[in-house]
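Researcher: Please translate sequence to structure tokens.
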Amino acid sequence: MADGTHLRLGVNIDHVATVRNARGSAYPDPIRAAKLAEEAGADGITAHLREDRRHISDADIDGLMAALRVPLNLEMAATDEMQAIALRHRPHAVCLVPEKREERTTEGGLDVAQDENRLAHFIAPLRDAGCRVSIFIAADLAQVEAAARIGAAVVELHTGAYCDLHAEGRFDERDVELARLRAMAAHADKLGLEVHAGHGLTYDTVGPVAAFPQVRELNIGHFLIGEAIFLGLGPAIAEMRRCMDEART
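Model: Translation complete:
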């Protein structure tokens, strides 16, 4: 169970690949970004290999597995193709996320409760291969309990709604969503799930989530890559680390 130990930071490098792919060039290199993040104190690297390969490529996953000293968290849809890729590479962690071709970014959590039987069978070989299986879900009681039933090791709570409400100045609704996240983090922890959180977190919004004692890891990407344009990747990560540590203490 959660014990107030070090809050890990996973840095998502997807959008370095987005910039690269905008010109069809070999740069900027997401593997170089991952190594810089590692040097800056990231506890892990997250990369989402989407079915349409809009940013991270198969070659990027090959390179990350070869280059990293910190764990790789491979985000992916629950498809046969992605399962085969994960079983070939056997990354430290596999995080299952919903995916729609037309979306700009992941719009919500996986509906585990409606697909429980299939997902239980889907994750079994990943777990047997030594991957820690994480499920990206909304802060919803039915989804948390379904994730526990199918045998996931981790739930990652989707913080996007909380962050969007903050950005829109809808602070009363933001606080309701934050309370929901807090309650579901506590409930997941009681069920024996490790609790992570992520999506849309910024310097302004990370503190309240980082303060949840049950949360063991935050995964943050788009904001950090954006800040890196102005600050550099190392300083951007260092400032996020400072905000997290300040909230935790």
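Researcher: Any highlights?
Model: The CA atoms of residues 125 and 196 lie 22 Å apart.
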